[in-house]
TrEMBL record:
EC numbers on record: 3.1.1.31
Source organism of this protein record: Desulfurispira natronophila
Native organism taxonomy: Bacteria, Pseudomonadati, Chrysiogenota, Chrysiogenia, Chrysiogenales
Keyword Hydrolase: yes
Keywords carried by this UniProt record: Hydrolase
A GO MF term: 6-phosphogluconolactonase activity
UniProt domain Glucosamine/galactosamine-6-phosphate isomerase: residue ranges: 2-185
Associated pathway: Carbohydrate degradation; pentose phosphate pathway; D-ribulose 5-phosphate from D-glucose 6-phosphate (oxidative stage): step 2/3
Listed Pfam families: Glucosamine_iso (PF01182)
Protein name: 6-phosphogluconolactonase
PANTHER family: 6-PHOSPHOGLUCONOLACTONASE
Family: Belongs to the glucosamine/galactosamine-6-phosphate isomerase family. 6-phosphogluconolactonase subfamily.
Record function comment: Hydrolysis of 6-phosphogluconolactone to 6-phosphogluconate.
GO biological process, alphabetically ordered: carbohydrate metabolic process; pentose-phosphate shunt
Length: 205
């Protein structure tokens, strides 16, 4: 990951990375603090955010701040304004983020149900080419039910993605990816972006 960052910085003088939330990437974010890189060139975005007040410990940006962002001097942190609720938050977020500039790297997680970011199987993923960058999510099966998520269309405008997974509970979801199911946002995304998968489990996929 640092190699990807440093290559982007050498070539373009900036590194645009999208961070996922949840629990899985916390150890990675903590380890990154001691990485050798020019942090002043890092621009931070988030795959999704839970509609909770700013500073709530269940928010994805709170985790990333505690683990990494409060400890390194990055150029910019573009949080998603989920404290405004899904509809108003999406309107504000889309005034600040459009679909044009590619991300250098997207970090993704996977839920046991196969969701990534806050794109859950069976809901709208914003996969159409005219979909806005940020979409409201109202009925997330995983709490909290209200969220903001980068759309599939926005995530697809990325140079590469890393999918991180830990634990045996996610093995069925990972195995499902190999079946190219139409009902998987990760499979759809992988049709546009190279996705490298890193997983830790007691069995192989
Ligand atoms: O709710 C979310 O879930 C996924 C997976 O989280 P994890 O706790 O199982 O690692 C995460 O990627 C996403 O950002 C988050 O909002």
């Amino acid at each position: 990951m640092l190699e990807t960052a440093n290559t982007a910085i050498n070539q373009a003088q900036r590194f645009r990375i999208v961070l996922s939330g949840g629990t899985t990437p916390k150890a990675l974010y903590t380890a990154l603090r001691s990485g050798t890189t020019d942090w002043s060139k890092w621009e931070i975005y988030f795959t999704d955010e839970r509609c909770l007040p700013t500073g709530d410990s269940e928010r994805n940006d709170f985790m990333a701040q505690q683990a990494l962002l409060n400890h390194v001097p990055v150029a910019a942190v573009h949080t998603l304004p989920a404290e405004l609720g899904p509809e108003n938050g999406a309107i504000q977020a889309n005034q600040q983020l459009d679909n044009t500039t590619p991300f250098d790297l997207v970090l993704l997680g996977i839920g046991e149900d196969g969701h990534t970011a806050s794109l859950f199987p069976g809901i709208n993923w914003g996969k159409e080419q005219n979909s806005p960058a940020v979409i409201p999510v109202h009925n997330s099966p995983k709490p909290p039910p209200q969220r903001l998520s980068l759309s599939l269309n926005r995530l697809a405008n990325s140079h590469q993605a890393l999918l991180l997974s830990t634990g045996d509970a996610k093995l069925p979801a990972l195995r499902g990816l190999a079946k190219s199911e139409d009902n998987s946002p990760l499979v759809k995304l992988a049709q546009h972006v190279p996705v490298q998968v890193y997983y830790q489990a007691t069995q192989s996929v």
